[in-house]
Please model this.
Amino acid sequence: GENVEQHPSTLSVQEGDSAVIKCTYSDSASNYFPWYKQELGKRPQLIIDIRSNVGEKKDQRIAVTLNKTAKHFSLHITETQPEDSAVYFCAASTSGSARQLTFGSGTQLTVLP
Amino acid sequence: ETGVTQTPRHLVMGMTNKKSLKCEQHLGHNAMYWYKQSAKKPLELMFVYNFKEQTENNSVPSRFSPECPNSSHLFLHLHTLQPEDSALYLCASSQGNLAGGADTQYFGPGTRLTVL
Model:
C-alpha cells in the first residue's frame, strides 16, 4: 500500500518568513495530493490540493509543488502569520470513487511573533 | 453546526462497555469515512463507505463495528475496547466522485475517546 513520509515534524519560523514542509510517497499510481491544516482542538481542514497532471498550484500565500518523478510534493507558506500556527498534514491517494487518503505524520508549525 | 457533525464530542468508557459514535453529514455527499487520530501518529483510515456500501476495512479489530444506514449517517459501534484504543475518532465525508476526479474530504470535529 501507499506510504507517505512527512518532514519536518516540527518547524518554527519568525513571522513574515517562509515555511516549507515536504512529503514523499511510495505509490507511483497516486495522483491526488491534498494538504490539511489542523488547529489545536479543531478538525482538519483542506487548505490546498494538487493533482498529478499539474506541477504547481498557488492560492494567495500558499503553494504546493509536485515532482512526480521523484515522488515528492511540498507545501510552501510565504509571509507567515501567527494564525498559520497549526499542524499540517499531507496526504496521497489514487483515483477512485471514494478517495482513500494515506496521511503523513504531520508537521507542527509555530510562527513566532 | 453545518457540514459534518459528530456526537458525542467526548466519551469515557470502561473496557467492558458498549457505546456508539455517530456522524452525520449535511453536504449531500455519498462517501463517508472513519479515521483514528492518535498522538504523534498519522491519521489512520479505518473504514470507507461509498453509496452505503463498505468499500474498505483497513484491518481494523472486530471490536470496532461500523454501520451506515444511509448516505447521511455513519456509526461506529464500540465494544470490549482496550486502553490503546483511546484516541480522537474523526468522521469525514466526500462527494464520492465516480469519475475519479478530485474528491475533497470534509472532516467532523471528532470524538475524543478515553478507554479506562
